[in-house]
Every structure is written in structure tokens, then in C-alpha cells.
């Protein structure tokens, strides 16, 4: 029985491509009207070496923790936790308002830690807000 | 477009939006005759030593911005917890913010455990944060404190590696300070000897390194007691002017004098009361 999980870690020098066509609209072609002009150079390379690792940091940490939990306590533990995460993630305000995510933070254990995400660039204090109608329509899939 | 703002999730923490623009500006700056602003560094000498009952941390007090002294008396020994202090070298803002964030986290952690925080905990938190940012946070730290297991001293490098040693130095003046330590360090020193040794090590850095200067700050941490001596030694006092350079009245001879009286007449007089309540 092969350990297929191990093969992925052997992928060296893989350029992180954000998506084959990130500007894709409805039919898979670049949607210039809605997303502006696209440039291959901008999409292919991250603007800062840390940009990708920071974007995926929480996800990677969760993955690592779940995999450790699975190895220690069996499959049921991470499954149950992920179910609770999914439930807590659904407790949100309207799309254009910032939610506190209190239940999710408590589950994660980040309610008693402070990091740069609490100090810098707090979304609650951002000067711009999305247009309420547009955001609700997008959430409902009507857009 | 309105839809564009819908699809971009606003995330907290570091924002990399301006990186491409900054790279472009930096590349073209020399053509336009502009100079890219430099970060304020603490080109520094910081050091620490473990003595019989605890830890002595020392630092100089100069902060530089390129070739200019930005702050003649800045404080480089930061508070982490009542029994743990941390000296910071590198980019001044990075050391400040990092130590403050770790101090807050350690306080929350100690409230959660109900115990006095340990130096190893602070060390682990700092190294995990610095490794996460791959050295882009330029903070080289000397962390020292006394906890339930005795006195501990760590040095933490900007990329996240740490060393646990009886005596450490960091900063641009670290070689000068380390020379003093290597010559005169002994295990289990008395407090006065340890203070003198640290003072001499920092003085070595101050007088032999351009990036370090001004005064010497010390922090003596022992079980249940912290002595924050700022300044412990004013090694570089600014000189006092020896004489007065003002000319006496009458030095310049008067050749001619013409007086023209200006006639003014009072047009209007108003009184405005001040609210002195």
C-alpha cells in the first residue's frame, strides 16, 4: 500500500500559479468589463515572496494540526472538529458588514492570541465598504 | 467596477498591494534624482550575561537613520513580562512591535495558565513569529529573564534561529562586546562584577563602533526583583561651552545716529475677555 500523500511533498520547483485564468468570467474567458485588464506577468509571480505564504498561512496551519490530530487520536477527531468549524463559519452578518467570527476564533484558539492581523489593516476600520446591494446579490448568486 | 470590489476579500495583517509599485519606484528613483527613504535602525550593541542569581542585560542608546543619529537616547531594553526583558537590535520599528506583540501574547497566556511566564515560552513565540516572516522582520533580540527554573538567556536572530547561552551579544557592535566577554566572563559571578562586565562590554561597542553610542542602559533581573538602570552610565556626555561668544555692548563704534519719531493715533480700542473659568 503506497503512501500517496508523500508524493505531493516531492514536488520541487513548482511555480505557484494563482489560476490558469484568474480573470475568468462566466464563460472562462477574461472578463475585462468586470475585472479590468489582465497581465500575465502580474498574475504569474507574487509581488512579494511572503505574499503566497501569508495568504495560505492559516490554512496550512490548520492542515498541519488536523493531520497531527489524525495521527494521534484517529480519524474521528479532526472530522468532528472540521464539522464544528464549518458550522461556526456560517454564523455571519450580512455580506457587506464585518463579522466578529467569535465562535470560529474560540474553536481555533485565536481568541487569546494577538498577531499582526489584529493590529494592522483591521477590516472593521477600513475606509471603503462594498456596495450593499451588489454584495448581497453576489452572495445570493443573482449577480 | 462595483463587482470588482465584491470579489476582493479584504484580509487583515500585512498588505502587499504596494510592493510592485514600490519596486518600480525604487528602480527608477536614481534616474529621477530621488533617494529612497531608509528605515531607522538601531545599529547597536546589546548584550546579556547570566550571573549567580539572575541575568544582566545591557544596551547602548543610539538609533541611526543611515549616517545620521536619529535618537541620542532611545530605550532598547523592552519589557516582555515582569520577570522577562528583551533587548532589540535591527530595525527599530520591528523590534518595538515584535516585543509588544509577544508581551501581550505572553500576558494572555500567563492569565490562561495562572502561572508566571517562562523565558522558554517567550523564546518559542518569538522564534515562531520571526520564522513565519522569513527574516523580513529585521529584529535581532537578546531575551533574558528569571523564572521557576532559574535564570535563562537567549539570543534570537531575524530569521528565527535561537541560541541558549550564558553570555550573548548582538548588533553591529557585537564583536567588540564579545571580545570583552570572552576575556573576562566567569560562571557564577556576583551582581556587581556582572554589572561591571556588561558595562565594559557595551562601552567597548560604543567606542569602537559607529552605529552605537551615547549612554549605557542596564537591566538586572533576579528572582522577584528587576532593576532597570536607565542610564546606568553616561559615557558620552555632550560638552559644555567654555566661554561666552557674545560681543559686549559698545564693541562696534557708532559713527552717526538719526532718530525719526513715528506719529500714530489711537483709532479704536476693544477689550476681549478671556474665559479663565
TrEMBL record, chain A:
GO terms for biological process: proteasome assembly. The keyword Chaperone applies. InterPro entries: Ump1. It comes from the Eukaryota. One of its GO terms (cellular component) is nucleus. Keywords: Chaperone. Belongs to the POMP/UMP1 family. This is Proteasome maturation protein. It comes from Denticeps clupeoides.
Amino acid at each position: 500500500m503506497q503512501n500517496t500523500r508523500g508524493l505531493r511533498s516531492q514536488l520541487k520547483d513548482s511555480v505557484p500559479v494563482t489560476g490558469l485564468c484568474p480573470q475568468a468570467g462566466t464563460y472562462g474567458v477574461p472578463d475585462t468589463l468586470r475585472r479590468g485588464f489582465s497581465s500575465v506577468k502580474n498574475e504569474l509571480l507574487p509581488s512579494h515572496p511572503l505574499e503566497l505564504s501569508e495568504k495560505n498561512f492559516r490554512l496550512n496551519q490548520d492542515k498541519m494540526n488536523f493531520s497531527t490530530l489524525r495521527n494521534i487520536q484517529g480519524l474521528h477527531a479532526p472530522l468532528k472538529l472540521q464539522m464544528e468549524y464549518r458550522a461556526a463559519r456560517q454564523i455571519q452578518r450580512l455580506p457587506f458588514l464585518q463579522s466578529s467570527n467569535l465562535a470560529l476564533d474560540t474553536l481555533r484558539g485565536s481568541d487569546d492570541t494577538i498577531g499582526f492581523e489584529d493590529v494592522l489593516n483591521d477590516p472593521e476600520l477600513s475606509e471603503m465598504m462594498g456596495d450593499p446591494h451588489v454584495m448581497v446579490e453576489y452572495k445570493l448568486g443573482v449577480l | 467596477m462595483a463587482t470588482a470590489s465584491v470579489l476582493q476579500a479584504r484580509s487583515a495583517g500585512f498588505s502587499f498591494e504596494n510592493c510592485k509599485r514600490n519596486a518600480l519606484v525604487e528602480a527608477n528613483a536614481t534616474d529621477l534624482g530621488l533617494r529612497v527613504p531608509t528605515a531607522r535602525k538601531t545599529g547597536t550593541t546589546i548584550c546579556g550575561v547570566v550571573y549567580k542569581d539572575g541575568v544582566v542585560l545591557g544596551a547602548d542608546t543610539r538609533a541611526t537613520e543611515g549616517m545620521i543619529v536619529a535618537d541620542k537616547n532611545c530605550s532598547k531594553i523592552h519589557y516582555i513580562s515582569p520577570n522577562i526583558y528583551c533587548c532589540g537590535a535591527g530595525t527599530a520599528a520591528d523590534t518595538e512591535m515584535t516585543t509588544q506583540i509577544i508581551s501581550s501574547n505572553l500576558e494572555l497566556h500567563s492569565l490562561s495558565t495562572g502561572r508566571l511566564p517562562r523565558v522558554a515560552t517567550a523564546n518559542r513565540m518569538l522564534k515562531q513569529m520571526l520564522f513565519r516572516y522569513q527574516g523580513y522582520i529585521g529584529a535581532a533580540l537578546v531575551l533574558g529573564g528569571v523564572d521557576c527554573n532559574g535564570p535563562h538567556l537567549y539570543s534570537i536572530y531575524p530569521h528565527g534561529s535561537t541560541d541558549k547561552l550564558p553570555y550573548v551579544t548582538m548588533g553591529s557592535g557585537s564583536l567588540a562586546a564579545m571580545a570583552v566577554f570572552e576575556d573576562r566572563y566567569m560562571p557564577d559571578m556576583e551582581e556587581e562584577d556582572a554589572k561591571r562586565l556588561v558595562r565594559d562590554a557595551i562601552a567597548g561597542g560604543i567606542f569602537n563602533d559607529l552605529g552605537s553610542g551615547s549612554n549605557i542602559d542596564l537591566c538586572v533581573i533576579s528572582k522577584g526583583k528587576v532593576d532597570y538602570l536607565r542610564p546606568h552610565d553616561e559615557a558620552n556626555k555632550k560638552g559644555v561651552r567654555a566661554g561666552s561668544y557674545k560681543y559686549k555692548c559698545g564693541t562696534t563704534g557708532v559713527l552717526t545716529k538719526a532718530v525719526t519719531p513715528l506719529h500714530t493715533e489711537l483709532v479704536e480700542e476693544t477689550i476681549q475677555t478671556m474665559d479663565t473659568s
